[in-house]
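Prompt: Have a read of the protein record below and flag anything odd:
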Amino acid sequence: MGVVNLKMQLAGSIAPLTIGFVIDAIDGSFNGAVWLLVSFGVVWFIAFMTLKSGKGNFMTEHPQTIAAVK
């Protein structure tokens, strides 16, 4: 939990600085910051879609488990 929280806190403090630097580099235009966020979103979406857990369904792995609600 601590490692995840640390990474989220670092991202929360680095992201505004990065966006500010991008805005300053493009002479005050927010277009670069928006494209930066869009590109990061596309990269993370592609990374998420290529993940494979290698695990089956919970009910196929544990057939002795009785579902409480059907």
